[in-house]
Amino acid sequence: DAQTIPVDNTYREVVVHLNREFQRYAVENGVYFGPVDDDEIERLQYLHGVFNMVFDNRLIFPPIPRPRRILECGSGSGAWAAEVAEQYPECEVIGIDVYPYPIPEDAPGNFDFQVDDLNSPSTFPSNHFDLVHSRMMAGGINANRWPGYMSDVFRVLRPGGWCQMVEIYYNAQSDNGTLTSNHALQVWSQTYMQSISGYKDPRAPLRLQNWMTQAGFVEAESRLVTLPLSGWSNNPRDNAIGAANRANVHRLLSSLAIFPFTQILGMSNTDVQLLVAQARNEADNPGFKVSWSSYVCIGRKPGGSSKSHRHSDIPRSHTPAKGSKHGESSRKRAKH
Description:
Layout: E1 4-6, E2 14-17, E3 20-23, H1 24-28, H2 38-54, E4 69-73, H3 79-87, E5 92-97, E6 111-115, E7 129-135, H4 146-156, E8 157-174, H5 184-196, H6 208-215, E9 218-228, H7 236-255, H8 258-264, H9 269-284, E10 290-300, E11 333-335
Parallel strand pairs: 1-11, 4-5, 4-7, 5-6, 7-8
Antiparallel strand pairs: 2-3, 6-11, 8-10, 9-10
């Protein structure tokens, strides 16, 4: 592949902070502050399972009956990309991430994993992909990069191609209004947003549809899907989702906080662990009925066959969310 080079060992280097491994390149360049160790890979697998439950095992929401090329931005453990590659064996599926996570042992042959920093202009050719999938990128895309990122996604899509995005807004809310600003979960939420705000846009999940429209996408549609933090709901389906999400939440409250809370805000490890422990207890407490808002947004690049303009099928929820081309670069992506 002329567009790739062997992955540089710089991307493999890690630093250990409070017994967790972080990618040196990511933390030193303000790219991403979450760990990249085996515990985090396990958490990402839990989160993927939760999303599969939320989306009824649907991996692709727009109408793309026979995709030929799919790109996933921020593929992490590669779970989504590997499942899509298995579901569409004739499709070339590329997953891209800033850290060379281990490729799943059972990954199909049509799945390719590459390494690149998505805060730089994309080096993929124009009009190339049928779908670009971007999930959980708010912690990785720089605050001022989002318009350029969306323009890159627009450029690499073929006419008629689709963009599909999923993000979680980490502002804990209680269904019955019992969670106040003094509770640990709300303190965690506000502290997290404060800790990354100099680098990232913590409110990015709420702005996806606007950014899509500004980039030139049509039929842009966004929905809010409530994500319970534990099994507190009287609705059997939501209760099962919350129960499954508990393992992800317990790990996430620690893994996303360790580096930015201590290294950016200067909190002590003792204070961080105490806050995390209290937040976990509140997340588990059925009396608070706590949830996060996840945002699902799709949009189509104009043009293409009329067959691709059929009505999309993105997840429904109780509350609808309100809602320049870059030249080719000489920088190349790293082949895993």
